[in-house]
C-alpha cells in the first residue's frame, strides 16, 4: 500500500514566508538597517534606524541618504555606492553621521549589494551600530588604566605582552613600543625565567583572580637590570582574540623597608619596656622599702616610745614623716601609672557590696580628715547595694577622690553618698566637698595625666596630677565612668557610675 503524497507548498507561499521572516528580523534588530538605491535614495528604514538617527521611516523613505552625512563626509556616500555597484562589500567602517537634531553619531557601518532576481545589483543594504558610547566607555577605561598607580600588563596565552599602561613605563624604564609583542619574561629576573612560563600556563589552566598580597614574595626586573620586590595580582580577561592574563604590579620596596624599620623599632621598644619593668620592680623594692622603714621609725619616735622629744625635735620628725608620706604617694602613683599604661593592671569584676568598700575608705581616710579639721561623712541607704566591680580598684578610685577632696578643702565637709533614681537599677557613687571648685573650662582636662586645675595649683604644691587620671583609667577598665560637676568657690562633686 503506497502512502499518499503530500503536495509541496506553492513556491510563491515559501517566498512570502521567507520575506515575512526577513522583515521580522529587520524590524527587531538592534542595529539600524537601511536599504537604498544606487543613487542613494532610501527605500527601507527599520525602528533601530529611527532611534539612531531620529528620523521616522515616513520622513526619510524616498529621500537622499546624504542628509545623514556631515558636510565634510559627503563624498563618502558616492565612494560607498560606487564600491557596492562593483559588487564589493564594506565591513565595520567607523565613521560619523548626523542625527536629526544636528548632533554627530559615531557608527560602525557595514554595507553589501542588493541583487534582483536577474542577478543585477539594484541597491545597497547598510547596517549601522552606534559605537560612540562604546568609544566613550573605552576612553574612560583607558584614562583610568593610564592613571592607575600600579603597573598594568596584559599577556596573551603565548606569554607576549599585548597591553601596558603609563605606570609600567615608569616602573620598568621601558617605552611602550619596546614592551608590546615581547615575552613577559623580560620583566622577570633571570633566576626565575626558567620556571615562569610553567607558572603562567598553570594559571591559565585554572584562571582565578588572585589579589594583591596573596602571600607570594615575587621580584621583578627593570630595564637597567635592577631588581625589586613586587606584589602582583592576576585576573583573566576574555577577548575576541582569546583569553588574556592581566597583571597589576606594585613596587613594595618602600613598604618592606618601612616594615623592617618598624620591626626594629618594636624590638627597641620591647627592650625599653623590659628595662622599664626592671626599673619599676627595682624602684618598688629599693625605694618603697626604705621609705616605709623611715616612715615607720619616724612614727615610733613621734609616739615617744624611745623617750620624750622636745618641741623642735617633734617638729622636725613631723616634717620627715610628712615628706616621706608625700614621696611614697608619688612613687605609688608613678607605679600605678606604669602598670596602667603597660596593660598590666588585673581587673577582676565580681559582685561587691558598696557598704563594705565605703566603710573601709571612711575608716582609712577619717584620721586625715580629722587632722585637717574636716568632717568626712557617708550617707548610705539602709538596703543592700551591690555592683559588679573590682573591689580593690573601686576602693582605690574612692580613696583618690576622697583624698583630693580633703587635700583641697580648707573648711566644711567631705561627703560620700550612694543613691539612685527610682527607675534606675545602677547605683551612683558621689564624693562632694566644699573646696575651691573647678572652672568650667578645666573640668574636661583634669582627668588627663599630670593635669591639675588652677585652684588646685593655688591651694597646694603637692601632687603629680595623676590621681584623677589613674581613677579615670581604672574606672574605664571596670566598665565605670567618672564625671564632675563643680562651681568655683562652692565645691565639687565627682560621680562614679557603671556604664549601662
UniProtKB/TrEMBL annotation:
<dbReference type="InterPro" id="IPR000700">
    <property type="entry name" value="PAS-assoc_C"/>
</dbReference>
<keyword id="KW-0597">Phosphoprotein</keyword>
<protein>
    <recommendedName>
        <fullName>histidine kinase</fullName>
        <ecNumber>2.7.13.3</ecNumber>
    </recommendedName>
</protein>
<dbReference type="Pfam" id="PF00512">
    <property type="entry name" value="HisKA"/>
</dbReference>
<dbReference type="InterPro" id="IPR003594">
    <property type="entry name" value="HATPase_dom"/>
</dbReference>
<feature type="domain" description="PAS">
    <location>
        <begin position="18"/>
        <end position="88"/>
    </location>
</feature>
<dbReference type="GO" id="GO:0000155">
    <property type="term" value="F:phosphorelay sensor kinase activity"/>
</dbReference>
<dbReference type="GO" id="GO:0006355">
    <property type="term" value="P:regulation of DNA-templated transcription"/>
</dbReference>
<dbReference type="InterPro" id="IPR000014">
    <property type="entry name" value="PAS"/>
</dbReference>
<dbReference type="Pfam" id="PF02518">
    <property type="entry name" value="HATPase_c"/>
</dbReference>
<dbReference type="InterPro" id="IPR036890">
    <property type="entry name" value="HATPase_C_sf"/>
</dbReference>
<feature type="domain" description="Histidine kinase">
    <location>
        <begin position="282"/>
        <end position="496"/>
    </location>
</feature>
<dbReference type="InterPro" id="IPR036097">
    <property type="entry name" value="HisK_dim/P_sf"/>
</dbReference>
<keyword id="KW-0418">Kinase</keyword>
<dbReference type="InterPro" id="IPR035965">
    <property type="entry name" value="PAS-like_dom_sf"/>
</dbReference>
<feature type="domain" description="PAS">
    <location>
        <begin position="137"/>
        <end position="189"/>
    </location>
</feature>
<dbReference type="InterPro" id="IPR013767">
    <property type="entry name" value="PAS_fold"/>
</dbReference>
<dbReference type="InterPro" id="IPR005467">
    <property type="entry name" value="His_kinase_dom"/>
</dbReference>
<dbReference type="InterPro" id="IPR003661">
    <property type="entry name" value="HisK_dim/P_dom"/>
</dbReference>
<dbReference type="InterPro" id="IPR004358">
    <property type="entry name" value="Sig_transdc_His_kin-like_C"/>
</dbReference>
<feature type="domain" description="PAC">
    <location>
        <begin position="88"/>
        <end position="143"/>
    </location>
</feature>
<dbReference type="Pfam" id="PF08448">
    <property type="entry name" value="PAS_4"/>
</dbReference>
<dbReference type="GO" id="GO:0005886">
    <property type="term" value="C:plasma membrane"/>
</dbReference>
<feature type="domain" description="PAC">
    <location>
        <begin position="214"/>
        <end position="264"/>
    </location>
</feature>
<keyword id="KW-0808">Transferase</keyword>
<keyword id="KW-0902">Two-component regulatory system</keyword>
<dbReference type="Pfam" id="PF00989">
    <property type="entry name" value="PAS"/>
</dbReference>
<dbReference type="InterPro" id="IPR013656">
    <property type="entry name" value="PAS_4"/>
</dbReference>
<dbReference type="InterPro" id="IPR001610">
    <property type="entry name" value="PAC"/>
</dbReference>
